[in-house]
Design goal:
homotrimer, 300 residues, 6-stranded mixed sheet, 4-stranded mixed sheet
Amino acid sequence: MLFYIVLLYCCSLAGVLSQLSIHSRHGRECVSPCFSLQQRNNSTSPKIKVDLDNSTGVAVLRMQSPPVNSLSLDFLTEFCINLEKLEMDKSCRGLIITSTLSKVFSAGLDIMEMYGKSPERCGEFWKAVQEMWLKLYGSNMATIAAINGSSPAGGCLMSIGCDYRIMADNPRYSIGLNETQLGIVAPFWFKDTLVNTVGNRAAELSLELGLLYSAPDALKIGLVDQLVPEDQVLSTAQDTMSKWLAVPDHITKSMMRKQTIDKLLSNREADITNFVSFITKDSIQRSLRMYLEMLKSRKA
Amino acid sequence: MLFYIVLLYCCSLAGVLSQLSIHSRHGRECVSPCFSLQQRNNSTSPKIKVDLDNSTGVAVLRMQSPPVNSLSLDFLTEFCINLEKLEMDKSCRGLIITSTLSKVFSAGLDIMEMYGKSPERCGEFWKAVQEMWLKLYGSNMATIAAINGSSPAGGCLMSIGCDYRIMADNPRYSIGLNETQLGIVAPFWFKDTLVNTVGNRAAELSLELGLLYSAPDALKIGLVDQLVPEDQVLSTAQDTMSKWLAVPDHITKSMMRKQTIDKLLSNREADITNFVSFITKDSIQRSLRMYLEMLKSRKA
Amino acid sequence: MLFYIVLLYCCSLAGVLSQLSIHSRHGRECVSPCFSLQQRNNSTSPKIKVDLDNSTGVAVLRMQSPPVNSLSLDFLTEFCINLEKLEMDKSCRGLIITSTLSKVFSAGLDIMEMYGKSPERCGEFWKAVQEMWLKLYGSNMATIAAINGSSPAGGCLMSIGCDYRIMADNPRYSIGLNETQLGIVAPFWFKDTLVNTVGNRAAELSLELGLLYSAPDALKIGLVDQLVPEDQVLSTAQDTMSKWLAVPDHITKSMMRKQTIDKLLSNREADITNFVSFITKDSIQRSLRMYLEMLKSRKA
């Protein structure tokens, strides 16, 4: 059952647990005063902050949507608009993605986008998730994830969509495509990206068990490339980026990733249909409601 | 020449060597009194014993066909019938495969099924080998191989057909797709399963040299997932299984393996034809006869 | 810009640097007296020496084209003729490739073949590069690279085209497909061969950054299989070869590599067209001229 599984999932997030919560786009959907407050803040301030250094050609994209940088439709839309702007800006050659929040990079897809929504809205949301991955995995810029906190599910997808991953050397931070633990099957392009990163067998184990890896374990299987002390994640990313930008160009990247990207491009509608028909099932919706009520009672 | 190669193969099996022998289905085909005796036993008793624990939903399948759990047509048929029963039993969600024999998990395909048999019979045998793999690799149950002894060739195929492999921590036990050492080319789906497990390069080396790996070496290349003391293989498998069964479902497994399984399904007849035309060659049959005569003289 | 990048490349070759130079097929194209001298020598002596030991069935192919065993059209043609002869010689079952030069196995493709040449000539050259790889990667012989010096770019391609790689245990020697550093994109079959050897992620990092690995680092990622003291590279290759030849046959090898080879075979003309249109671009030719002038001034 989704109910106890999500519970497991929370427990496994350890450091993030105390802050983990669900927020929605509209005040009236909020499940507790706490969320409501956050929503008001979010509605007036951007969820993402981008600083482009014209002297180096490197942009830093900071995710700043408390409490856990959930990937809501609004968040994803803002993310994609920013990515597209940078992509078209010839002066920008490198992108570093990081978080302004303490202890969390991104907790992944916003569960509120999947609960009580119309099929149309669910489809719109999923299309935005696809768009985020397509833009990131296929970016012409050199991309580095500066993972300064936990990064489960969609946060992990965002990380492995980059060219290089630097994570805070803190065993309390975890990363992984743990959708299976949530009763959700990772779609084929999540799977393909993970296989490309850690190989077939590690991906199989990881996806079948919905594993979250501590930072040191993530390094061992190659899910991240490097661990550094927490306060050096961003500066190391900057140093590493200068090495990437010293390389003439990145046609090679497109050669490595084209097949994986083309597979989603030619199956995009079917993938949306699959997601919508799964997530709008009564059984799945019931589980989500139980989960939300549990969260509410914990807050009370 | 197959002759000296099979000799090499025996030598490499070390611990199993003293027991290694060939048995047949019918008394009249027996090549020594010793085999005959074993055959009488086998004809009246099942080669496989299955215990399903309804409280946990976990079945333990014990291979108990002395001397070495050879995969004969009878054995494979019994194996597949048992697997199918468990697959259809909704109360069974996990399967552990192990051996009741000392020092051996399974020595692989029964050579007597390939010697002096009609093409029809050889084809029937090969179809049963395919069926075993298709049922195991594509099982909806969580499957764990509790490898409590050596597991060459077909025994290795059975192991890598499972979701997880726990092996006795004994350097005298070995595992590997060593068909090449026997003058036999591993078919493409053996190769695909191995590549999925240990990656392309390790599979290439392994298959081209027909390598058998000691338990510690098998762990190093990822051919098995875990080593434990010999007397804890089964109990560790039980503990591990409970973790697998805590995960909601296994659609992910089908997504990971579908392509590999479909490749055999759409080439099944051609694969049988290939095997039959190879194994019925005069040169191969001559080598097999020399091998059998050598075994007879060793016994005398 | 290619200019400064090639400079980087030279620096990374360290030990080879002092000797690195460009040579051409015709005296009139020589860019310095030094090259001219080498050319005269080369025109009268073979660039490759082959010794076949009929008692073992093992041929040793020695590359002896100073200063750095550059893969010129002449060199490649000689290489392919020798390979074809050995392939057709039933008494030859194993091939060891090594270098007679100090500190370098092969520095890769000869840059002079790409500068100031007609499209037809460039196409002829590229076809020879393809031919070398097709013959080596698809060889029916067991092939071992005895890498007794640095082996960048095309030298690395030649190495990973073999079945097994033994490298001198010297951290000053490096190996890798560093074409990206030279402003050149490795073609898809370079990429495929590397992925087959070190896996997708290591290949991606390696190609996107144009990395050269020191011998110890190359061992770590599986780019070479074994390191031995410099004076034991060839003898270890001989010992290893005897193990490979003890295995009955190598149909397995063809099964492992067929798909990768077929991909080039069915795209051969397009691959040549791509290369020619890229290398004959004005911008690329300008960069090559700047590089050659820099080399000239260094020599002066």
